[in-house]
Amino acid sequence: MNEHEIRPVRADEWAKVKELRITALHDPVAAVAFLETVEQAESKADDFWRDRAAGAASGRGVRQFVAESADGQWDGTVTVLVEERGASDLFEGTVEQTQGHLVGVFVRPEQRGTGLTEALFEAALDWAWSMEEPVLERVRLFVHEDNPRAAAFYRRFGFAASGKVVPMPTDPSAKELEYVFARP
């Protein structure tokens, strides 16, 4: 793998958060990987991006990790959302247990297959397992039925299909498959 520092975003890095998200939404698989379009992201004011970076930099609710190269370029990201038991859930209504939820997974095409995604996932899971009371017993993610490359990576990494299938919020005719990683 190329040398990268895997670390949480900092609150003042909103411009890089925005740039990487828009880059991700330009990816050919963005339509099945994200619930947002590039047009939606580009139309958001800078205050949105400032708030997003600040929220993902501290606290228990969310943490965004990035892979930063030696020259300062961000080559990948993953975000962990903490879903508290009883809270509303984007997919099925109410969260049944406190858990982590990985979203926003993206690695620049030229960095895919280098181990960068694994390093990002390791950092995300380490952070999730560090949560105290209530501890997270599992981390989950959803993958679109037409994204077999991502599903294969998740299985190789150790996620297992739970059998839960839900309609994609932006296209109810498409399905999202839940994968889970139990606390070791």
Strands of the widest sheet, in order across it, are 1-2-3-6-7-9-8
Percent in helix: 25-40%
Count the DSSP helices.
6
Q: Which residues form runs of ≥5 with pLDDT under 50? A: none
Radius of gyration: 16 Å
Strand content: 25-35%
By DSSP, the count of extended strands is 9
Query: What is the makeup of the main sheet?
Result: 7 strands, mixed
* Class from secondary-structure proportions: alpha+beta
**Which overall shape is indicated by the principal axes computed on the Cα atoms?**
globular
Terminal Cα separation, in Å? Answer: 25 Å
Q: Mean pLDDT score, rounded?
A: 93
Give the topology string: H per helix, E per strand.
EHHHHEEEEEHEHEE
Q: What can you tell me about this protein's structure?
A:
By secondary structure, this protein is of the alpha+beta class. 31% of the residues lie in helices and 35% in strands. It has helices at residues 14-25, 30-33, 38-42, 46-57, 116-129, 148-157; strands spanning 4-8, 62-69, 74-83, 88-89, 93-94, 99-107, 138-144, 160-168, 171-182. Helix 1 (14-25) crosses helix 4. The protein is globular. The model has no long low-confidence stretch (mean pLDDT 93).
Summary of the model, kept short:
By secondary structure, this protein is α+β, with helices and mostly antiparallel strands.
How are the elements arranged and paired?
Blueprint lengths: L3 E5 L5 H12 L4 H4 L4 H5 L3 H12 L4 E8 L4 E10 L4 E2 L3 E2 L4 E9 L8 H14 L8 E7 L3 H10 L2 E9 L2 E12 L2
Parallel strand pairs: 6-7
Antiparallel strand pairs: 1-2, 2-3, 3-6, 4-5, 7-9, 8-9
Helix pairs in contact: 1-4
